[in-house]
Amino acid sequence: MTKFKKASSRDSQMPMRILLQQIETGFYYQDSGAWTPNPVEAMDFVSSSKAIDYCVTNKIAGVQLVLKFEDHLYDIVLPMVVDQRHQNVGPRPSAPEIACDVA
Which pTM was predicted? Predict the structure, then answer.
């Protein structure tokens, strides 16, 4: 299970929050498919790898990671790039069968 936490008044004092931002709208992921324009209401992920895993598991595309600081001048936006090597990959082929003749 992916670990993340919702924003609270205590979280607003944290030095950095890890958020998912929809590239097209600029909205932040809130919870259960909901998006908000307010970063304070956004879901804060425990780590960037947890946020990425959450996107993969829930098929969330068109987002970027935002490392959000109290002073927005220090915010860092990290684009998420889809690894094309893993796109449209079907099941792995099974090993070839080996025929053995028993005399």
Answer: 0.67
